Amino acid sequence: MNLPPRVTDRAFARLAEIAALTGEARALRVGVLGGGCSGFQYDIRLDDPAADDLVIEKSGAKVLVDPVSLPFLANAVVDFTEELIGARFVVENPNASSSCGCGTSFSI
């Protein structure tokens, strides 16, 4: 069964921190584009909702997925991670058969 992506509490918490720092509550868009070193790449950015977006919301923080990207992100998990090399939103995607070392592109 294909479920929409799940967003972790840590990712929602980071979105709330960004909104508090900037004074602007923009949503996190998680999409898939053609390209990258493995065939597809993630498009993760702050954006405003479009009429046909899937909106995943918790405590006012929103994550958006457009209808074209939704099948590629079925059952995926959107998380936020902090490591020595930096902090970023990441996608754990069970649909990806392989991905590049940086984690921004994948193949199916």
Automatic annotation (TrEMBL):
One annotated GO biological process: iron-sulfur cluster assembly
InterPro entries with a match to the protein in the record: ATAP (IPR016092), ATAP_core_dom (IPR000361), FeS_cluster_insertion_CS (IPR017870), HesB-like_dom_sf (IPR035903)
Protein name (database record): Iron-sulfur cluster assembly accessory protein
Residue stretches making up the Core domain: 7-103
Entry's Gene Ontology molecular function annotations: 2 iron, 2 sulfur cluster binding; 4 iron, 4 sulfur cluster binding; iron ion binding
